[in-house]
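Sequence in, structure out. Go.
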Amino acid sequence: MVEAIIAKGLQLVAVKVVEVMLKKVLDSPWSNQFEDAKEIVKELLSDFSKNRFAEKHFQQTLKMRTLINPDHDVMLSDIYHPMTISTASNDDKLTVKDGFTLTFSGVVNIIGIAGQGKSTILRKLFLEEISKGDRVPFFIELRNVPDGDVLAYFKDLLKSFHVNVTDSNVEFLLQSKKVVLLLDGFDEIRQETTIKAFNSIMQLNKSYACPVITTSRPNTQVCQMPGIQNMFVETIDLVDKLHILNLIERQDNRSNKTTFRNLCDLLIENTYLEETINNPIMVTLLYHCFPYMDEVPKDITDFYRQLFGVLYARHDKTKGYNDRERESGIETEPARTLFSNICLKSLLTEEYQLDSHKLHQLVTSALSSHGYDKKLAESFTNDLVKITCLLQSDGNDRFVFLHKSVQEFFAACSITAINDDNIKSDIYKHLRTSLISSPKFDNLLQFLYYLDKPSFINEITIETFRLSGYDKFANQPYEHVTSLFDKLISDGMLYGESSADYSHVRLLRFSPITSLLKVDFLKVINGEKRDPFSIDNMDEKFEDTITVDIHKDDLSAYSYVKSITTPNSKKVPVMGAEENQRESYKFGYKEYLITHGIYDYYKEVFYNTIVDFNDNVYKIKLNEAQSMKDAMRESFGFLNKL
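Output:
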């Protein structure tokens, strides 16, 4: 009864906050050409639509489940610690705190590694947009956009609030500067829809000049495209970690007031551990697991390795008893194996959230493949959700992993433990196919490098480089690399626009040179983090060299294709330009490099990069692997004499 009253009170507050925001937006100055768009905001202010927005969008975005409170929702404002982001262009530091919003034009992309708090930052920006009331924010998890069409999904979202939606009024709304789209998790989009989603995001900005803020792990397509303003999540320091621990303890109704103090002392005294616990999700996991740990983790891999065991066993060393009983009766190590199997299958199929039916399929498959009765599926699922909390239910027939990095680590554990060489080889083959063009499995591969090193070196380091064909060119003179280099850059294009009465063509976007040359994966197959910017600053040099505006008298020096389009009458002319025909230009990459005198430079950088890897990694690992095989044969050679 009390909980129902509290929930009702929160709903009333949410409705009032949304109403104030919508009225501020509506009462602000609007251009006459956006009257249709203004009608959408007016309709959102109707009682039903306003309540729907408050409950299904505002509250839904700001409510979450945590390890400390896995059975009920907490609000973002209760657990948020101010995070710092920095601009890629000049390293300006910005603190995302109360009253802060990102008012950059165009597409802003917030980049962070696993567990750094990208989604939390985006939710905080959503909350502050609501509070400020200059524009209406819409928060969209990109993994929920089934076909990558963000515009179509946005229209459906508006329809869910019961407002009148037409192509015209939505497109005017996007152009009005009265909305901002917050798109979370570009790295969690299914691989087959990545390109469509990326094009959809760029179209929102190019066609409607709509402000867009995205989040992504490093090295995805949205991070590499020129014209996007990248921002990086800064690493938290010791003071941040202690403050986050304090916030967590305040939310912990079962706190005995010793965990916080013990962890503060531990992090201050143990520099190595403090450096290992380097992001908010790991701070949260440390607080949650510490009462059950027998020893301090030595590194990040050891930390994750202990994670399942201490949570599933739940023997609280500070209280001397197990605080939750298991329904399934499955012991800790077999349970870890089953959970790892679930993580692997869902990760390889790019399923980051599961409905009850899909989860049941995964659990029964894991049980049967390891000799357990399928009837244990429900009880084992309950153990995973209620005891470990590594798999969480949001109450809407949706189960999500506590964090994607948890799913990735235990997927790596599952691969490591596979005894069937054919199955293991097939999985590594799948990873090889993906890693050259996509960073989707980079974190999984990082874990595999430490957990399954011999297989990683054979299947990833050696085999990927061999199959790429780079080894053959690395052993040939420089002149022979031209054919490979030309083939790689042939997929690249530079895109420009102009109009019939304008004297120049303005370059708007182009394919990043590093994505074309496909050398950033070399770090990944050597067990390191993918970092395209470390390779002689290739993209930066390209951007410094290119000509943004090309005079039409100089076009004869380039290879290009020109097309003419008629303007969309529903779009507002940008910067008051006349509504004449637009000219689109596609320039050939090779000819552009030659014209600007940088073709030979990039070819030489490419050649030196693959030669360096070939001589200092590939050949050495290949010889080491062969020596180990020879030594093993020699060691057991006596068997032939028995």
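Check: The chain is about 50% helix and 15% strand. The first strand starts at residue 63 and ends at 64.
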